[in-house]
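Lecture notes, unit on protein representations.

Consider one protein chain, 118 amino acids long.
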Amino acid sequence: MRTPFFPRLLALAVAGALPVAVAVAVSGPSASAATGKSVVVRDIKFNPGNLTIRRGSTVTWRFQDETTKHNVISRGAKRFKSSPVKGSGTYSVRFTRPGVYRYVCTLHIGMKGAITVR
């Protein structure tokens, strides 16, 4: 006779195999769709430099330059709250109004980007 599903699932959780399965499920397409768009901050540039999103979306800047610090400072007519200076970690902004939001890193001349909200 086979063991019912739930006790086998519980046995997997106790054995430590279940957290691996859960991590794989969380990193699938639904997880990335829920987080919005990302901009990588590394090597003295924003990648992508220009990003188009839908109104209500969140943009997350991912700081991946441990030895070089950066910031995200809003410039122009359309503005958002700027980030602190960081070398690692993330900073997120939810955009609720359409328009073009320009930003720079004030620590590195020429490091700039734009978010177009439709």
